[in-house]
Amino acid sequence: LRPHVPVAVALMALATLHPLALTQLLKLLWGRVRPDALGAAGAAYTPFYRPAGIGAGRSFPSGHVAISSVFWVLPFELLGRRRGALLSIGAWIVAAGYPALVAAGRIVERRHFLCDTLFSLLTSALLAPLLLRWAHGRRGSAEARSR
Questions:
Q1: CA–CA gap between residue 141 and residue 7 (Å, rounded)
Q2: C-beta atoms surrounding 67 within 10 Å
Q3: Torsion angle of alpha carbons 84, 85, 90, 94, nearest 10°?
Q4: What is the tens place of the pLDDT at every residue in 93-122?
């Protein structure tokens, strides 16, 4: 199982950093009001780039989409392998399709705006390859130390 340790480490790191730490901190500090709580004529609406402040709401970014996109580590890992190209395409379909469905559901339920869900998707897309690179480098340095 040793070859798979970096993937598992990157997966756990992404699950901890994105949905649990970054998303929850932004929700607390940003304070964006959810679409279903905007009130008459959308008076409480704030654009995603302007923080509403602590206690104003918890819409931005989407935690559901963040947790559903944690598995983006897997297709990024397969993309880096020579023989994994076809498998990578299938993994991308599943890994991108599930968060897209979750995002659509959150928007239809009026719990999030489109940009709330896109922010979570893009954050996973940026963090997954970085954490994979870090985990693979960590494994290489651990093997060098053990020699």
A1: 16
A2: 19
A3: 80
A4: 988 999 999 999 999 999 999 999 999 999
